[in-house]
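Annual report, structural modelling task.

Input specification for the DGJ complex:
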Amino acid sequence: MILVDQEQRIFTLQTSNTTYQMKADTFNVLLHAYYGPRVEADMTYLIRRADRSHTPNPDEAGTNRSYSLDTMPQEYSTCGVGDYRIPSIEMEQADGSHAMDLRYTGYEVRKGKYTLEGLPTFFGQEAETLVISLEDPASHVAVELYYGVFEEEDLITRAAKIVNRSGEPVKLLKAVSACLDFPYAAPMDWITFNGRHMMERCPSRAALNPGVQSVASTRGLSSHQNNPSVVICRPDAAEDHGLCYGAVLLYSGNFEIAAERAQVEDCRLVLGIHPHHFCWNLAPGESFQTPEAAFVCSPNGFGQMSCQFHRAIRKHLLRDPYENRRRPVLVNNWEATMWDFNADKLVEIAEAAAPLGVEMLVMDDGWFGDRDDDYRALGDWTVDQRKLPGGLEALVPRIQALGMKFGIWIEPEMINEDSDLYRQHPDWALAIPGRAMTRGRSQLVLDFSRRDVRDYIYNTLKAVISSADIAYIKWDANRTLATVWSAQLPASRQGELYHRYVLGVYEMLDWFRRDFPEILIEGCCGGGGRFDAGMLYYTPQIWLSDNTDAVDRLRIQYGSSFFYPVCTMGAHVSAVPNGGTRRTTPLETRGVVAMSGTFGYEMDLSETTAEEQEIMRRQTAFFKEHYDLIQRGDYYRLTDPFADGPFTAWEQVSQDRREVLASVVTGTTRANPAFQMLYLRGLDPDLRYRDQEGNVYTGAALMAGGYPLSLDLFLGDYQSRQIYLKAE
Ligand code: DGJ
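The model returned the following structure:
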């Protein structure tokens, strides 16, 4: 609900459990009053003032030295006019100055959620939109602040649009999607999600210290190293208690999330496109649209925050038809064959997979040009007749005859120098003339800011995909951007290139959705290098990591689950010893872990034993039987896999709380193990739950006393158990 007190100029966004409030003050400065647990009150008493000295006062304040932009909570912080904390916006005005003041000029409330052209957004007719208009009185450059309110999910979205009404050209150097000020001096922690290739999104918690701290990507992609998501919380906040705020940026390129603890111990958080090499030219009348940021405030810890994000993403970010449709259990040939396969080998894998309940074969990298390794052929999107005689027209019916669907891997944004495409169009790759080029995985990045490049790549891929009945596409991207320069942009516009690249990727993804609405697209970026809420709008699932080791995956899935629901996490069972870690884990355990993702296999199933096949048959049957619970249940992290306890556990609870699936994976074994209890969460205390063995416990008992884990589970390394409980 959006409430506007026109007289007091107070704007209140109410969700089921939270309240967000701001006020346009007497000098038309838009101040942030409150964001937290739901209240029905005027919270503007929280905006306090004092003369802090060495904090400038705007002209209107006259001799009132307590009025300073530098110490008051701002809704969209300005630059060069007296607020020295992190600016939300910075521009070079026509006169060369970098000053930008913003004053309130009006508002509008709309039914339904706003959309942003060419950018991903949460959507929903049941949501409401508030637009607040601000303007710089000197230059007349305007900023429109967008707020989306999703009551049920406690989700508040934000974005900003910068409109050049100055009559002269200006240069936008920074424009964040959202700024959130916490005016009080309460100690705060923040949790960021960091890592590297094969070890993405590991949570890192630290106190917000004086000064600025930030996580960012300048790699052109949201990156393996830092995820565009953050939690800000009270130091006592944990999974099941304490005040916390989750924030995600719906953007897949360069980003920065920065937090500043300022002089009076107030905190500011900003999220947006990274200002590195960002310079957007705005001619008179032109505007720039920032990506969207989204927030959930949970008064009851991280668990509730995650549940609300998961619900919001499933219902308001994943688009038709895959927000609800069951996704196929697949087998991917990558870890089985890499580039060394042909049609017969793929059919052999599919023949082994079909009786196990696997529903789709995905043909990974290596089917095009002369792609026998990763030094060549990216860009030459024609089927390699040596490997696949007769093309997809011949192969796909053979897979379908087994009752399976067929999926294909592509990497549209990339090009190898050893390719026909590069020989014809060397200027299509990002490179700076006169400067040595950079390679990543021996490949270059195509200039996706160019319409002609996008058109060509799309049309060649469209021809391949139209040549057969394709059910799924895996869209990969295997290097980051460097030496970024476009042959099609003048020097003055090169600062627009990183963002134009992202817009180009989004646009082509939308072309696929338009022309092939039934095809399921899985995002991928050398595993999880572009696992972000922006991509999820286009690709409802994303390959979580190139690391398929079940024990490492526990950690990667744990970190990713703070924001992203199970149904978005690409997860497969692979062979042992694992290629990345050389670790051997039981097949059952690999299944339990992959099942808390989209679930599939990534190994040569034709080389498995009858005993292994029997385990896999049970896995796929169990997964399909409990699909709704696993994919759409409320997800609870029961232990922290980074804490090195005796086991890692998590849980899915159906919306009506009548069904529960708890998954447990143990660590390395010790003789004579202690009794371990599993403290379940989110149950109905009054219901009686029956487990697979027929034992019955009340919800209250399972939450307070715990579920008794059997001792034999702790004998042997990396054992696992799935405990399914149903209310009587
Ligand atoms: C990186 C991906 O993450 C892998 O799954 C695989 O598709 C390879 N690229 C193929 O080159």
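Residues 334, 364-365, 409, 476, 478, 524, 526-527, 543, 546 surround DGJ (CB under 6 Å).
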